[in-house]
Amino acid sequence: MMIFKPWLDRWGLQPDGSPIAGTWAKLLPVLRDGEPAMLKAGMTAEEKKALNLLAWYDGDGAVRILERDEKAILMERAVGERSLKAMAKTGDDEGPLTVLCAAATRLHAPRTTSPPDTLVPLSVRFEPLRQRALTHGGILARCWTEAQSLLATSRDERPLHGDLCHDNMRDDRRRGWLAIDPKGFHGERTYDYAIMISTPEFPSARPSPEQVQRRASFVARTAGLEPARLLRCVVVDAGLFALWSMSGGHEPHGLGLAEMAAGMLDAA
Predict the structure, then answer these.
(1) Which residue among the candidates 163, 181, 192, 237 is catalytic per the annotation?
(2) Spatial contact of 116 and 192, defined as CB atoms under 8 Å apart
């Protein structure tokens, strides 16, 4: 709790739950003037940069930033009871995917102000695949090949949330579904839909080929995407997830998903 104390005092906050140890930061549910909010501290440099995109959204389709300094941020806290992951666990694939596609459309919409200059181009995002393709070959080489293809033919570029998964959409009783935790990329909009294709419990539960095919077809149709480009994005994103897992000493489950999506591309 000590990590949060300076901002509890400075911003007039009262704890409203237990601290949460996130992957990239530490969070604390709080109240300010009786209203729910979320205090985040201990952020990485990448997380701090990504907050510029959240600020640019200005509450349109995403949680609002209420206070911010160099080391912490106070955000709107969505307190609705609906959960996309819970919906998916009941066997409802299309309901959560419809919400996620609508969220992407809203976040991708043009705005009156220029996007932040801290967005990471997809060329930089994809770069870790290049070296691993040279040293490991196999499916990682295929991931890099697909990444190069996407970059060489990139279209419809815009700021990207970068992590529009089931967990990163939160229900708010007053404002509906709101996105949290953008990563802050820039590139072809198709890439923002790739993460939606895997199962919400991934990597603890892997999707079947039938599930991947069904979800990819639904998302492509709903969002007006070219199915082959969406599958290419799935291959690349799964490969990047595998690299992230390997860097943390975990099983690279993303490789299986990358192979699955690559097989679907070849069959098509």
Answers:
(1) 163
(2) no
